[in-house]
Amino acid sequence: MPVVVVESPAKAKTIEKYLGSDYRVLASFGHVRDLPPKDGSVDTDNDFDMKWEVAADSRKHLKAIKDALKDDQTLILATDPDREGEAISWHLLEALAPALKKGAEVSRVTFNAITKTAVTEAMGRPRQIDQPLVDAYLARRALDYLVGFKLSPVLWRKLPGAKSAGRVQSVCLRLIVDREMEIEAFRAREYWSVHARLATPGGEEYDAALVSLAGKKLDRFDLATADQAAMALSAVTSRDLKVTSVAAKPASRNPWPPFMTSTLQQEASRKMGMGAKACMSAAQRLYEAGLITYMRTDGIDMAPEAVMAARDAIKAKFGETYLPKSPRMYKNKAKNAQEAHECIRPTDMMVSPDKARLTADDQRKLYDLIWKRTIASQMEAARMERTTVEIASPDDQVGLRATGQVMLFDGFLRVYDQGRDDDDGEDSARLPAITQGEVARLVANAFDDDLVKAREKGGDPAPAPAGQRSAPGLLTNDSAQAAARQHFTQPPPRYTEATLVKRMEELGIGRPSTYASIVTTIQDREYVRKDKNRLIAEDKGRLVTIFLLKYFPRYVSYDFTADLENELDEISAGDRLWREVLTRFWKDFSKALEGTSELRITEVLEAIDDALAPHLYPPRADGGDPRECPVCGAGRLNLKTARSGGAFIGCTNYPECRYTRPLSSPDGEAPVGDRVLGEDAGDQISLKTGRFGPYVQRGEATEEVPKPPRASIPKGWDAATLELDRALQLLSLPRPVGPHPEDGALIEASIGRFGPYVKHGSKYANLPDVDEVFTIGMNRAVEVLAAKQVRGGRGAAAAPLRELGEHPDGGPIQIMDGKYGPYVKWAKVNATLPRGIATEDLTVEQALELIAAKAAKSPAKAKKPAAKKAPAKSAAKTTTKAAAKKPAAKKAPAKKAAPSKAPPKEG
């Protein structure tokens, strides 16, 4: 029977069910070959000849396919319908070539959804492998390899702590670093706005904002100080006001197009806080379950039959009023979009989220998002009315404006509204009935609550002139009819995964299918960290970016990277030759590499120090030298690196002067200088700033006490206002709470790497507030520890996702959920589930294979549990046992040592 090859076993199982017993469907488990992670895999001296290697895990899968081909030499390659899928088919054909006899039939089929209709129709339209697509893959893989394996070693040698560079990875990192430097260079600018509460003759109230003063339109920064705001406030409250015009304009909003890969990742991040990697993993499961179409696509068009199915679903669920007269058509504006690919949509529009029967929370939420977006994309536009009311004084010295919006018909918004990365300031307030020419009366005491709230926040209010009241950031007239509010311009926000993917897409950098792995890689390399869903550049990532900008500026250029992507797309279209693109790239890139061969580390640090000088050493308020050491006054500040790869600013007068401060401070705050807080028990208590931030110290380092007691300043505490009593509290930690009432063991409270906590023996429980460390009593401590034990936490045994049964050698086989995905556990053997295998589909036989393969790699772990005696087995189980142990019996061939710092593979 013909042999059909797909990537994943879950996909194979579903497709075999659709095709029936006339076909044999096998899985390749993804790529079967790749470039060995060592120098020379791409031979630049031999026309970029590429040396491929079959992965150890792939040999058994290839053997299964070869064995199946002995019975029938008809091979159908049915891998994914994208560029990567085409490459996998090509690799399979190359690897299987020796097993194919003369006259063997080989064909390629693609389907956008795993449904019976899509699969059977695809089988009726076979084709050959698309060579231009393969050529584009070869060029991309060679480029990524050359940058990774040629540039990364330069980083290792010239920049301590650097781990890797990549063709797209480094450009993505630059985006984050550039944004961080923008934030640090940002200087807030003050401005004020004036608002009034007005009432119609009938007593209905509404708000209006001052838009003109002294006959001139107000710009954002025209009211720059509290004094100017007070004058404007007085001008508003001292005049009669009248409505000069009321304009109501109809408006409409059209729905967004269906999802493609990048927009799905962005919306999953905005609405669910789901990272790009987690989003694609959940989408993969939905695709393999036949619920959605292929999830790696940059197309937004929808098949005609799907459009009609969506319209039928809209009519059935929402009625004819929500159905536009004609179907909506969408076309991607991106130059490199693969228009042959459909958008990401449900395979059956009538399967609403409540009917999908999904148990996994992430899959259920993602399907709900995809279904709603798809249905909404074919719905009627939302219709609204936007009203603008102009109010002015009779002398035209004061002009105010009130805006509002009324929804007339919700249209597609009944189902779905796209999330926003930042507030767009759209005014949707309802306005009462207002008539041109009517009096606009100021409402007394309208801003009293605002005054109270502003005063409760604390701080120093601006002085209020006669007839006005003030609170921090707020001024009102005595009757609180109008208010002036203080504002400050905000720095550009740090990227989220959603906004980073959006920016990369706008610049034409990388491909949608690679964004998830790239964002994950720069976090794994510790170049970037994620905090509250925002991506923050670490010092290590900043140094790598500055190094590359200094010595390899072209290869982290946004335009160059985007142009190279365009060339790769031209290769896939058959308009360019891939070896010519590589030749041109390598000619210039190799020269750039040669130019760094004689560089010394000290030269590199000096160059980076000079490049970062405006950010590291901003001008001082007193006009002094910004590089002068603030402690000794004799040394100069310069950049230093630690063995860990981190960076800090230190004094050249070391070791006489031990002043240090971090390269960057959180939220762009200026570093706090060293100062003495006071004395305690004869010791000087000092506030110092080190490479990891501010800390307090008791005494000074001596030969007898080389490491005096220290304590870091907790997050949320202001080091600039820290006083002696608070410093002594920190230095007294850990604080004993008392003996536990059950066993008498001491309970302690302290602050650790992960924040404030209480500790009882080996058990830890986090506290919500740092200050509670110094006040927590016994009852509260026991309660927190007990709650942690009930919840389970760090160190608590996790419950298995599934119990598969007993291993032939004794002991349970379980599927666990780990940090890097699900894995099979038996005794001390943990075997990761290959990509494409769903936890609910895994069989005992497959689990035994995975365990045996893992045990063969780590013989020391493959010991059966000593506590259990293996029970007697039936003949069938004995056979399984022998088969499972067979790989471990073979002597593993000697492996070639791989480089300890292999750079990442990029798509």
TrEMBL record:
Residues 454-474, 855-907 are annotated as: Disordered. Residues 164-169 are annotated as: Interaction with DNA. Its EC number is 5.6.2.1. InterPro entries: Topo_IA, Topo_IA_2, Topo_IA_AS, Topo_IA_cen, Topo_IA_cen_sub1, Topo_IA_cen_sub2, Topo_IA_cen_sub3, Topo_IA_core_domain. It is an enzyme of class 5 (isomerase). One of its GO terms (cellular component) is chromosome. GO terms for biological process: DNA topological change. Residues 860-871, 883-894 have a biased composition (Basic residues). The record marks 31, 140-141, 144, 156, 296, 525 as: Interaction with DNA. Residues 872-882 have a biased composition (Low complexity). Belongs to the type IA topoisomerase family. This is DNA topoisomerase 1. The lineage of its organism: Bacteria, Pseudomonadati, Pseudomonadota, Alphaproteobacteria, Rhodobacterales.
